[in-house]
Amino acid sequence: METRLIELYQLEELAAFSDCGTISGVGERLGVSQPAVSRAMRLLEEAFGVPLFNRSSNSVSLNSTGEKAARHARLIVEAVQRAVEDVRAYDRSLNTVLVGSEAPAPLWSVAPLLSPFFSGKVIAGELTDVRTLQEGLGNGRFRMVITTCPLRLAGHVSVRLGHEDLMFVLSADHALAGRRSLSFADMDGQNMLLFNRLGFWRSLTERMMPHSRFYVQSDMAAMRDFVAHSSIPSFTTNLAGPLAVKGKVVIPVSDKEAHVEYFVTGRSGDLGVLSQLARSFAPFYSSLSGEPDQQG
Amino acid sequence: METRLIELYQLEELAAFSDCGTISGVGERLGVSQPAVSRAMRLLEEAFGVPLFNRSSNSVSLNSTGEKAARHARLIVEAVQRAVEDVRAYDRSLNTVLVGSEAPAPLWSVAPLLSPFFSGKVIAGELTDVRTLQEGLGNGRFRMVITTCPLRLAGHVSVRLGHEDLMFVLSADHALAGRRSLSFADMDGQNMLLFNRLGFWRSLTERMMPHSRFYVQSDMAAMRDFVAHSSIPSFTTNLAGPLAVKGKVVIPVSDKEAHVEYFVTGRSGDLGVLSQLARSFAPFYSSLSGEPDQQG
DNA sequence: ATGCCTTACGTTATACGTAATTATT
DNA sequence: AATAATTACGTATAACGTAAGGCAT
């Protein structure tokens, strides 16, 4: 008795057959010829050793055994696909240093600074909330995380990175363009342009300016364009890069919530890297509130 | 970029490798040559598109990605094996009429009577408890079930089959061999030979004769031999087949628990079969308690 | 006639084993 | 030496596509 082995391509075609219902349909969908599918199904039947199809001279359909087999086939094919994806994702993660952060700006500075320490690896940043950051640091998903409060975690150390200060960007002809500083309350009710992925800044501004509408823009280049060519107010910070746009003025936000400190937390073994990060971390603007850029 | 497909034999060899740890070990275990395994693993790596092995010139081991892949591989190979088994079992069930029963004796009579009604199919009997019988009849696992009480189930009918009366088998020189009838209490404390698969009789005798020890024998032929050649008491019933063993006497059990009626319950559409079963069902012995063999 | 499945056939890909090679212990 | 992995090579299996045939609607 010849005991044929089941092949994955056969299971794939069987699963497809339970969708299409015809041999030729399977062939078309999977890019193989009709006879190839016909043969594959016959061989699969032989491999199972039991009838799977009702065959009349002119058409083929699954019997109840075949339907059961098809359900198995689908699960197996999907398991193989998931296996490949999972293994590839894992391999990618091995070649990636993932840095988590509550806000985007620190990542812009930190990512290039990390490259020399992890040559050959991809430095990837991920924006999420503190809870996820702490958890991901613990289970190794994040190599290091940037938060507005130092984290306490066994085997890890926190180092102060620097600060970020929020500022309004107004057209020079805006009614409040002459002020030395502005509070959230001063601007509340005015609609504003907002970049989509702002981390905690997003919820902060929505909370502090409940009467404003925010025009959220996901594309960074489009965002810059909007800011430059419209009179709608927007935000910037000391970490956002030089933004000397003609006809715009930059005014610090006076509320204490608009001033945050960042801490980077990582494995104790990465202390050297973390310290170097803190030393090299520098804002594009020096602080308008007069605080020092370097910490003690 | 050549995008190779994963083959099941590769996954099988990968799973084996995670056990053996060497290419040659895999070859030996799976009955393929060393080079074949070496090539298969290289092709599998190519199919995944990521490195799975640490290769030194003289040895190969899984890296962490490979271990992950091997776990997937094992699950997939097992899923395929389970699929084949499940499909084959299902196909077998299609060609089987499964009859459930609380006791073995009615099955001995019923199975041969069913053959002409289900020609080409295998008649299989299964011994289990009433609860499982009722459930299995409802979900179609059992085509019909035999119980000591008629079952009420939508779309199904119960028909009285006949009765079974328990009897003691004693050596002619046993102290109680002269009695016309015996109660369980009379025999309680005496050790007895018992067939293993007796359905509800098993628990009944253990309950009624709590001071007896039962020597349980699974093999039917051996059981007959024991009964014939030892002086240890045993049981028989009017359905157990003629048991005219020289030097043995058969004495009815007087307790009412030793007398049961059987009902066969099946689909309404099988009513004709069920009725014929009841008509053809006959004990080997006529009842010693004087009841009629045929029912109204 | 058209659609669907199968059989037949020649081609090609590829999985296999044997044998030889290299490296490690 | 012995063990383990690889490379090289010839063979054979078998999956493929094209072409042709049979049977239904």
Question: In short, what is this structure?
Answer:
Two copies of one chain form a homodimer. Helices cover 41% and strands 22% of the residues of chain A.
Q: CATH superfamily assignment of the largest domain in chain A?
A: Periplasmic binding protein-like II
How large is the share of residues in beta strands of chain A?
Answer: 15-25%
Question: Can you tell me the CATH topology of the largest domain in chain A?
Answer: D-Maltodextrin-Binding Protein, domain 2
Structural class designation of chain A: alpha/beta
Q: How far apart are the first and last residues' alpha carbons of chain A, in Å?
A: 81 Å
The 3D shape of chain A can be described as: elongated
Largest interface: A-B, 31 and 31 residues
- Measured as a percent range, the helix fraction of chain A is 40-55%
Textual characterization of the structure:
The structure is a homodimer of 296-residue chains. In chain A, the strands form three sheets. In chain A, strands 3, 4, 5, 6, 9, 10 and 11 form a seven-stranded mixed beta sheet that branches. A two-stranded antiparallel ribbon of chain A has the order 1-2. In chain A, helix 8 (200-208) links the parallel strand 7 (192-195) and strand 8 (214-217). Chain A has ten helices and eleven strands. In chain A, 33% of the residues are buried. Helices cover 41% and strands 22% of the residues of chain A. In chain A, helix 1 (8-20) crosses helix 3. Chain A has helices at 8-20, 23-30, 34-48, 64-94, 104-114, 130-138, 184-187, 200-208, 220-229, 271-280, and strands at residues 53-55, 60-62, 96-101, 122-127, 144-147, 156-171, 192-195, 214-217, 234-237, 248-252, 259-267. Chain A folds into three domains: 8-91, Winged helix-like DNA-binding domain superfamily/Winged helix DNA-binding domain (Arc Repressor Mutant, subunit A, Orthogonal Bundle); 104-158 and 264-280, no CATH class; 163-258, D-Maltodextrin-Binding Protein, domain 2 (3-Layer(aba) Sandwich), CATH 3.40.190. Chain A starts with 7 loop residues before the first helix and ends in a 16-residue tail after the last helix. With 296 residues, chain A is α/β, with parallel strands linked by helices. Mean pLDDT of chain A is 89; it is low at 285-296. The A-B interface holds A 5-9, 11, 47-52, 64-65, 68-69, 72-73, 75-76, 79-80, 82-84, 86-88, 90-91, 94 and B 5-9, 11, 47-52, 64-65, 68-69, 72-73, 75-76, 79-80, 82-84, 86-88, 90-91, 94. Chain A binds a DNA duplex (25 and 25 nucleotides) through residues 7, 9, 22-24, 32-36, 38-40, 42-43, 55-60.
